[in-house]
């Protein structure tokens, strides 16, 4: 019969989301969650050590010098199973990290427990979009595109208006929309492409550079501004550089004050656990809540893999057809080459 610790450990299987604060490395978040879960699992009283039957030879007389001996069976606890000898019952819990956040950024960070780590790989291959809130400031440029970096340039910003900012954002979004269509490898003249575009379900089929699927201004008050970004295959450094390029397009400079992820695929910021809730009592209900989502991610990944295999086979068949040439054409081409060489010799 399974103990309470084993039953609790079996429940730690799936995906959930936490809120990573700014200034904290993602490794520290992972290690803190793992430590809290190990404390919870090992907090239960260990099972009683198993007993071992041991036969002891004892004198049968009244005195110890008696020559008559008897064999007596006795039960003794096995010291190798004692918790002071064996140590804690669980020493490691596999905690996986999804699309990572650097120390400067904050927001939703997806973690996996047990077999949920395979779903993390499926989530990464599915090229899901993510939402960010970017807070920027016009008037200066730094070496790492953040407000805490070394200032390398200062510029004016009084000529910038919200209309000019939105015009630049529309240009950037239009260029990224073309890139999304190109990397999605969908025929634009089909009904399938139209339906995917209307539903906003176009995504790259293979690994692609960062692509912005949505970009709009939420707040504008010089020198500060706030943008909402939906993107695929991005990095936080790319997003900070994006604000720098927006400043250059407006004939100024800009730095990033804050990067906050509000959504990572199906995981939203409302579902993310804060630092106080990185405990087993809060993580287990969150894993149970996302159990159906985890199964859906795995199912969609299997479909995507089958589609990619079918596309690869089709491309191989097309390649074989293009490389196959009839023997007569080789002979014909060879005779033409010989004729041309003879003509050149006659001219010489």
CATH topology of the domain at 129-264: Pseudouridine synthase
Instruction: Name the CATH superfamily classification of the domain at 129-264.
Output: Pseudouridine synthase
Q: How confident is the prediction overall: mean pLDDT?
A: 81
Radius of gyration based on Cα positions: 33 Å
Order of helices and strands: HEHEEHEEHEEEHHEEHEEHHH
The SS-based structural class is alpha+beta
SS elements, strand count:
12
Helix content: 40-55%
Q: What is the count of DSSP helices, taking H or I runs of 4+ residues?
A: 10
Q: Categorize the overall geometry.
A: elongated
CATH architectural label of the domain at 129-264: 2-Layer Sandwich
Biggest pleated-sheet summary: 8 strands, mixed
Distance between the termini: 98 Å
Give the low-confidence spans: 308-312, 321-348
Protein name: Pseudouridine synthase II N-terminal domain-containing protein
InterPro entries: PsdUridine_synth_cat_dom_sf, PsdUridine_synth_N, Trub2
Family: Belongs to the pseudouridine synthase TruB family.
GO molecular function: pseudouridine synthase activity; RNA binding
What does this 3D model show about the protein?
- This protein is an alpha+beta fold and 348 residues long.
- Among the domains are: 53-84, no CATH class; 129-264, 2-Layer Sandwich (Pseudouridine synthase), CATH 3.30.2350.
- It has 10 helices and 12 strands.
- It has helices spanning 4-11, 26-41, 83-86, 116-125, 162-184, 191-199, 236-249, 280-289, 291-323, 327-347; strands at residues 14-20, 51-59, 69-77, 95-97, 106-113, 130-138, 140-142, 151-154, 211-221, 224-232, 254-264, 267-268.
- The strands form 3 sheets. Strands 1, 4, 5, 6, 9, 10, 11 and 12 form an 8-stranded mixed beta sheet that branches. It has a two-stranded antiparallel ribbon with strand order 2-3.
- A hairpin with an 8-residue loop joins strand 4 and strand 5.
- Helix 4 crosses helix 9.
């Amino acid at each position: 019969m399974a103990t309470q610790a084993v039953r609790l450990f079996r429940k730690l299987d799936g995906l959930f989301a936490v809120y990573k604060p700014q200034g904290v490395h993602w490794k520290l978040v992972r290690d803190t969650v793992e430590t809290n879960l190990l404390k919870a699992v090992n907090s239960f009283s260990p099972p009683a050590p198993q007993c071992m039957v041991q036969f002891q030879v004892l004198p049968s007389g009244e005195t110890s010098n008696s020559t008559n001996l008897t064999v007596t069976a006795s039960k003794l606890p096995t010291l190798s199973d004692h918790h002071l000898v064996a140590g804690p019952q669980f020493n490691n819990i596999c905690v996986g990290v999804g699309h990572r956040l650097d120390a400067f950024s904050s927001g939703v960070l997806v973690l996996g427990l047990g077999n949920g780590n395979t779903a993390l790989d499926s989530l990464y291959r599915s090229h899901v979009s993510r939402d960010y809130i970017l807070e920027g400031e016009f008037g200066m440029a730094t070496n790492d595109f953040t407000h805490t970096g070394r200032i390398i340039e200062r510029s004016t910003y009084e000529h910038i208006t919200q209309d000019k900012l939105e015009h630049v954002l529309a240009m950037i979004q239009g260029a990224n929309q073309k890139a999304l269509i190109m990397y999605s490898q969908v025929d634009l003249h089909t009904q399938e492409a139209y339906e995917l575009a209307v539903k906003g379900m176009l995504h790259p089929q293979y690994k692609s550079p960062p692509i912005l699927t949505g970009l709009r201004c939420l707040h504008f008050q010089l020198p500060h501004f706030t943008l909402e970004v939906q993107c695929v295959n991005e990095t936080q450094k790319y997003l900070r550089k994006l604000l720098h390029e927006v400043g250059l397009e407006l004939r100024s400079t800009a730095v990033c004050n804050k990067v906050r992820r509000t959504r990572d695929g199906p995981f939203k910021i409302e579902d993310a656990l804060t630092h106080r809730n990185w405990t087993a009592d809060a993580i287990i209900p969150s894993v149970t809540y996302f159990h159906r989502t985890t199964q859906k991610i795995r199912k969609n990944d299997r479909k995507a893999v089958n589609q990619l295999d079918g596309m690869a086979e089709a491309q191989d068949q097309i390649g074989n057809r293009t490389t196959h040439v009839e023997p007569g054409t080789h002979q014909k081409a060879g005779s033409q080459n010989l004729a041309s060489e003879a003509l050149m010799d006659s001219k010489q």
